[in-house]
Amino acid sequence: MMQFTKIDINNWTRKEYFDHYFDNTPCTYSMTVKLDISKLKKDGKKLYPTLLYGVTTILNRHEEFRTALDKNGQVGVFSEMLPCYTIFHKKTETFSSIWTEFTADYTEFLQNYQKDIDAYGERKGMFAKPNPPENTFPVSMIPWTSFEGFNLNLKKGYDYLLPIFTFGKYYEDGGKYHIPLSIQVHHAVCDGFHICRFVNELQELRNRTLTVCRTEHKNRIPKIRPLTGRTMRKVDGLFLSPKSKKEVNYNDKTENPRPAPSRKGASRDAACTGTAQAG
Q1: Radius of gyration, alpha carbons of the chain
Q2: Residue 205 main-chain phi, psi, to 5 deg
Q3: Structural contact between residues 151 and 121, judged by C-beta atoms closer than 8 angstroms
Q4: 25, 173, 190, 270: which has the fewest C-beta neighbours closer than 10 Å?
Q5: What is the chain's mean pLDDT, rounded?
Q6: What stretches of 88-190 show up as alpha helix (H) in DSSP?
Q7: What is the average per-residue pLDDT within 25-42?
Q8: C-alpha to C-alpha distance for 279 and 110, rounded to whole angstroms
Q9: Distances in Å between the alpha carbon of 68 and those of 90, 163, 195, 199, 221?
Q10: Cβ distance 82 to 100 under 8 Å?
């Protein structure tokens, strides 16, 4: 069962940084990287739900990506996060948000995803699947173009601590497939080190063969060694800008937004962005 554990600010090792970047000099920032998804393509995995699974798996390992404000503006950490994403409606050129229960079992997560798509994919309106929990985070996709930089400008963004992920159109370059990923975070809870560790662990997971992964508790994260300051390494051109890009048609992707728990008065859908076609 999801829990929200309040942080004792006065005894928090990050108190000085939180006070500076939340109160004194409010700061959010984004970093855009490219992920190598060649193995994912080679294995014939369904792109969007597999990316959702990967992002949620790594996010749930690290507290800095699960830190948020409750409705009273108190800082705390969710025990688990769920992805919230959108379905694009071609006829109306609008989108609807759907959230899916997470499980560390890859096959089970794909089944949960497909059930939600089947049940809510044709519903119109911003929130097709009702009652999104507080512990959801936004993952969007813009499958119509690639990009080397992406940033969301949110009026109440300085009160929003959870990360926002945006994928773009994948492309082939030198025989490998890459997809752009923008990660937007609040500097009060997340530094450059944390984003880089997240990206490197996500790439490591992408390079693995995803199969059924059961643990003692179905929502425990698969044990893949987290990267630390000592072990972090640069992954195959991860931070290099693509040079020659051969665009590839994207028939099985979707983009996504999300609702969010926020500071007093901040709306749940402040971080939602319109997006793509799930597949």
Answers
A1: 18
A2: -65, -40
A3: no
A4: 25
A5: 81
A6: 106-120
A7: 96
A8: 11
A9: 34, 10, 17, 21, 20
A10: yes
Q: Taking residues 270-277, report their average pLDDT.
A: 49
> Annotated catalytic residue: which of 62, 186, 187, 217?
187
Q: What is the rounded CA–CA span in Å between residue 213 and residue 224?
A: 12
Distances in Å between the Cα of 268 and the Cα atoms of 60, 156, 167, 258 are 20, 11, 21, 8
| Percent of the chain with pLDDT strictly greater than 70 | 75
260 pLDDT more than 60: no
Q: Which residues contact 209 (CB under 8 A, 6 or more apart)?
A: 39, 43
CA dist., res. 104 & res. 81, Å (int): 12
Torsion of CA 69, 59, 186, 190, to 10 degrees: 110
List, for residues 142-179, the tens digit of each pLDDT value.
Answer: 999 999 999 999 888 899 999 999 999 999 999 999 99
Q: Please tell me the number of Cα atoms within 13 Å of 137 on its side-chain side.
A: 28
Q: Is 62 a catalytic residue?
A: no
Q: Which residues pair with 67 in a beta bridge?
A: 77
Angstrom distance (rounded) from CA 168 to CA 172: 13
d(CA 122, CA 142): 19
Angle at 259 between CA 258 and CA 262, to 5 degrees: 130
The reported pLDDT for the residue numbered 255 is 39
SS3 59: helix
